[in-house]
Every structure is written in structure tokens, then in C-alpha cells.
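quick q for whoever's on today - can somebody do inverse folding on this one?? i tried earlier but teh output was garbage lol. C-alpha cells:
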């Protein structure tokens, strides 16, 4: 059975679109600041926030709202098709790596609520490549994670195209616009 490791934020759901306005509102209306919001990480936030402000954001906004991120509809269809074909589905995420980030505890409920079939969840994974040793495919939305997977594992790497990755080019990485393209790449 082939094993597929799949990132969550901005891969099966649009975390940036959902949390961008929330981070901006927190910065402007709660902190009364005018900081730039950084969208380059999985979750929009300001790099100017103190550790205390970031902790407050995660505890009072991110961890409470993460269950409401809209799922990419085609992700449900094609992940479940892959699972039914016999692929082992493992979700791998950075969520939960900070003491104050409890969003990892919500993932099973989130996947169940969105009717996504899976075998396992790996949380708190800052260096995802450490968990990809027996994976045949790795699907993520960040250049760094994809590059590390290429250099340190034997997994075939699939990158979701985003504004951050649109100009990235590497012949060893399959770039996909949507989950149908991912499904077709894996099954062909």
C-alpha cells in the first residue's frame, strides 16, 4: 500500500484567506497597531508581535476559529478517492509545536466534520521530512518543506500552487493547481 503525507493549512483548506482578515483585525482593533501581516507562514500573523501578543492571538483567535476554516471541496473528493483506492493517508502539520498552540487537538474533529478519510495525524512537525521516510508522496504548499522533502527523502513531492509558490520551479516537484491534478498525478 502506498502512503501519502498531506499538509493541512493552505493544502486542504485556505488558512491564509480565512485568517488574514482575523490577524489584521486583531492587530488593528485589539493591539491598536498598524503592523504588516505576514502571509508567508502557514498562518497569517505579524512578525512585529511580541511573543505574548502572538500567544494571545493563538489562544484566543487561531485555536478557537481553526475549526471554521472552509475546506477545499475538491480536497475531500480526491483524498477520499485515494483512500478508497487503498492509499494510506497521513496528515502532517506544524500545528501544536508551540505550547500555546492547541489547534492540533481539533484536527480529528475537523477531518470528521468535513468527511475526510485518513489513517493517521502527525502534529508539531517543524521538520516534516523527519516523518516521510516510508511515504511515497508528500503534498505541501511551502517551498521550504518541499525542498527539504526532496533532499532528505525518497517521496515524490507535490506542491500546491499558491501566490507564494507560483514562480517556484523545480523539475522534481509536481506543481498542482487543485486536488484533481494531484489525484491524476498519483493514479497515473
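ok took a stab at it. sequence:
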Amino acid at each position: 500500500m502506498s502512503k501519502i503525507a498531506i499538509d493541512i493549512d493552505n493544502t486542504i483548506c485556505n488558512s491564509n484567506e480565512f485568517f488574514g482578515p482575523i490577524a489584521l483585525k486583531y492587530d488593528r482593533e485589539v493591539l491598536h497597531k498598524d503592523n504588516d501581516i505576514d502571509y508567508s507562514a502557514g498562518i497569517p500573523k505579524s512578525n512585529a508581535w511580541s511573543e505574548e501578543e502572538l500567544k494571545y492571538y493563538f489562544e484566543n483567535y487561531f485555536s478557537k476559529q481553526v475549526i471554521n476554516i472552509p475546506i477545499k471541496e475538491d480536497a475531500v473528493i480526491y483524498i477520499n478517492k485515494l483512500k478508497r483506492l487503498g492509499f494510506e493517508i497521513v496528515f502532517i502539520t506544524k500545528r501544536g509545536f508551540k505550547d500555546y498552540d492547541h489547534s492540533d487537538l481539533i484536527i480529528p474533529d475537523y477531518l470528521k466534520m468535513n468527511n475526510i478519510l485518513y489513517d493517521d495525524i502527525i502534529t508539531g512537525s517543524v521538520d516534516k521530512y523527519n516523518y516521510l521516510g516510508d511515504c511515497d508522496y508528500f503534498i505541501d504548499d511551502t517551498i521550504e518543506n518541499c525542498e527539504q522533502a526532496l533532499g532528505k527523502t525518497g517521496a515524490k513531492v507535490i506542491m500546491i500552487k499558491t501566490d507564494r509558490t507560483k514562480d517556484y520551479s523545480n523539475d522534481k516537484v509536481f506543481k498542482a493547481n487543485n486536488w484533481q491534478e494531484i489525484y491524476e498525478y498519483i493514479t497515473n
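fwiw The chain has two domains: 3-14+70-187, 15-68. also The first strand starts at residue 3 and ends at 6. so keep that in mind when u check it
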